[in-house]
């Protein structure tokens, strides 16, 4: 039987429920399976910046409008696709059997961006050269212009980071839903972070990493009156949305291609990521001797040979 929820004082704290009432703190047996709770908790603990859960695209922190978004869905057909990706080595062999239970298969988004992601309006591309997940407004939708070509708040070094290869599958679906958009898109050579990451001070410029912890003295401070429920207005010039006119080489932009070489690079980055290694460690028994465990770790976590180009979905 679940433990009783703790009492709390009024007024309620801003920007979230009282301690013990958060999504990952509710232990009621009626809230779903332990696997579903693990999915929710993994995302909620990862996509937190300056002490608040936020949309990885726009930074919105109003918990009422935040949603867990699956990269690969939860239908039977999607479960078949998930198993196929595991067999091909596109995702770690030790991921959960069902995509809806794997926190690495999800991101936190506001209602607006979750709808755009699920309806294949935009996609996210991992760029190995800069180790960032970049927002691509492939549909050329005016509401997403300011986000195009800029990195969302995902850290490939996190143990629960989405495998970069997963986003290739979503990208192919976006491209298929917009067959008349230019196949070759353009993004900055060195994509910057989304505007809110810079304007809110989420970026640790010394390490180029994202700040997770709440700033000192920010909780329930009566002198702080900033409404942080919605992202600040853009303070940096947005990237130009792609057109049929190719930018010159001097414009500081690169062609965003999807071919066998690009897929191979992303697969390599996927298998070398901390998320892949952590997933293998979590699903492996370490009951042997030190030497046996060392060999087991090397065999299972070591980067295997990348699949040949025939695994490139664009080549089919």
TrEMBL record:
InterPro entries: HNH_nuc. It holds the Pfam family HNH_2. Residues 1-37, 207-226, 280-316 are annotated as: Disordered. Residues 55-124 form the HNH nuclease domain. Residues 209-226, 307-316 have a biased composition (Basic and acidic residues). Residues 11-20 have a biased composition (Pro residues). This is HNH nuclease domain-containing protein.
């Amino acid at each position: 039987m679940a433990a009783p929820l703790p009492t709390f004082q009024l007024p309620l704290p801003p920007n979230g429920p009282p301690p013990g009432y958060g999504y990952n703190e509710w232990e009621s047996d009626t809230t779903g399976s332990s696997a579903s709770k693990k999915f929710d908790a993994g995302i909620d603990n990862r996509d937190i910046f300056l002490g608040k859960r936020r949309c990885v695209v726009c930074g919105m922190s109003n918990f009422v409008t935040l949603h867990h978004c699956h990269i690969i869905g939860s239908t039977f057909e999607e479960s078949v696709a998930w198993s196929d990706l595991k067999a091909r080595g596109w995702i770690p062999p030790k991921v959960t059997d069902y995509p809806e239970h794997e926190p690495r298969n999800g991101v936190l988004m506001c209602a607006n961006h979750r709808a755009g992601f699920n309806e294949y309006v935009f996609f996210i591309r991992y760029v190995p050269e800069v180790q960032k997940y970049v927002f691509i407004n492939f549909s050329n939708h005016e509401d997403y212009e300011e986000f195009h070509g800029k990195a969302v708040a995902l850290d490939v070094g996190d143990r629960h980071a989405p495998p970069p290869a997963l986003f290739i599958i979503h990208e192919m679906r976006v491209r298929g839903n917009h067959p008349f958009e230019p196949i070759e898109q353009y993004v900055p050579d060195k994509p910057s972070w989304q505007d809110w990451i810079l304007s809110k001070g989420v970026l640790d410029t010394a390490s180029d990493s994202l700040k997770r912890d709440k700033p000192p003295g920010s909780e329930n401070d009566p002198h702080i009156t900033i409404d942080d429920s919605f992202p600040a207005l853009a303070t940096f010039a947005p990237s130009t949305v792609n057109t049929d006119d190719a930018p010159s080489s001097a414009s500081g932009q690169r062609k965003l291609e999807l071919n066998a070489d690009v897929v191979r690079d992303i697969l390599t980055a996927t298998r070398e990521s901390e998320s892949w290694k952590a997933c293998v460690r979590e699903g492996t028994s370490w009951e042997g001797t030190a030497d046996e465990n060392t060999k087991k770790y090397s065999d299972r976590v070591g980067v295997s040979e990348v699949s040949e180009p025939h695994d490139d979905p664009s080549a089919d």
